[in-house]
């Protein structure tokens, strides 16, 4: 595998990561995951635009242009011969002795990236998954795709220990999003999802799905709903770069709707697959 670090493409053995990297100490950085279908980056512009927005929100500059990062991502896909998979890219505030405030002397941000194969989650797409509601103890800037993922990690672990594929983050009784996904409920033909505020990450897949709903004249309400209301939805699904449109068929051990992927969810899945720019096998 060939990695990218600080302007170089290199092997894992020669990667030089400093203990003084602020990403390592503080999670002081941002990241993106971009899906690769048939050797092509999917919605790369949207992902890299969000990377720059996240960086700006934490007062960090990225020493590359959006196009340069896209070119680096493309090179990673090519040199690693990735067909279906994803690229990971992160930017930290650089290397400096451990003090909380920004480094006194300006240091260059550390940009790292790699590409790995990752098949589409066919089984989950077909059968749906179970989810568990978890108290959302995160901070109030969940719109930033930051490396600080401790609350998400703990939530996902809690879900996994209960045999669930995803945690549903609930704040003051209201469904926010998943630990690494966005959540949608469907009631009487209307698709509900949390509005894109500071309390959720505005997922790129979320945006694609909202666009597909519009194109297919499926009514959407970007409105909050409670975890109690979630249990009474006719259908439920989650979205992310890697999960695509994954049906959620059980929440906290109880079946949602019929207990199997619902008709509108399936329609959206099919529409999603149709707009992947290529025919994807494996
Ligand atoms: N919310 C959170 C907290 C996430 O980590 C992710 C995954 N990046 C998402 C939502 C989904 O975003 P996207 O569709 O851009 O992958």
UniProtKB/TrEMBL annotation:
<keyword id="KW-0808">Transferase</keyword>
<dbReference type="InterPro" id="IPR036038">
    <property type="entry name" value="Aminotransferase-like"/>
</dbReference>
<keyword id="KW-0032">Aminotransferase</keyword>
<dbReference type="InterPro" id="IPR050571">
    <property type="entry name" value="Class-IV_PLP-Dep_Aminotrnsfr"/>
</dbReference>
<dbReference type="InterPro" id="IPR001544">
    <property type="entry name" value="Aminotrans_IV"/>
</dbReference>
<comment type="subunit">
    <text>Homodimer.</text>
</comment>
<dbReference type="GO" id="GO:0005829">
    <property type="term" value="C:cytosol"/>
</dbReference>
<dbReference type="GO" id="GO:0046394">
    <property type="term" value="P:carboxylic acid biosynthetic process"/>
</dbReference>
<protein>
    <recommendedName>
        <fullName>D-alanine aminotransferase</fullName>
        <ecNumber>2.6.1.21</ecNumber>
    </recommendedName>
</protein>
<keyword id="KW-0663">Pyridoxal phosphate</keyword>
<dbReference type="GO" id="GO:0047810">
    <property type="term" value="F:D-alanine-2-oxoglutarate aminotransferase activity"/>
</dbReference>
<dbReference type="GO" id="GO:0046416">
    <property type="term" value="P:D-amino acid metabolic process"/>
</dbReference>
<comment type="similarity">
    <text>Belongs to the class-IV pyridoxal-phosphate-dependent aminotransferase family.</text>
</comment>
<dbReference type="Pfam" id="PF01063">
    <property type="entry name" value="Aminotran_4"/>
</dbReference>
<dbReference type="InterPro" id="IPR018300">
    <property type="entry name" value="Aminotrans_IV_CS"/>
</dbReference>
<comment type="function">
    <text>Acts on the D-isomers of alanine, leucine, aspartate, glutamate, aminobutyrate, norvaline and asparagine. The enzyme transfers an amino group from a substrate D-amino acid to the pyridoxal phosphate cofactor to form pyridoxamine and an alpha-keto acid in the first half-reaction.</text>
</comment>
<dbReference type="InterPro" id="IPR005784">
    <property type="entry name" value="D_amino_transT"/>
</dbReference>
<dbReference type="GO" id="GO:0030170">
    <property type="term" value="F:pyridoxal phosphate binding"/>
</dbReference>
<dbReference type="GO" id="GO:0008652">
    <property type="term" value="P:amino acid biosynthetic process"/>
</dbReference>
<dbReference type="InterPro" id="IPR043132">
    <property type="entry name" value="BCAT-like_C"/>
</dbReference>
<dbReference type="InterPro" id="IPR043131">
    <property type="entry name" value="BCAT-like_N"/>
</dbReference>
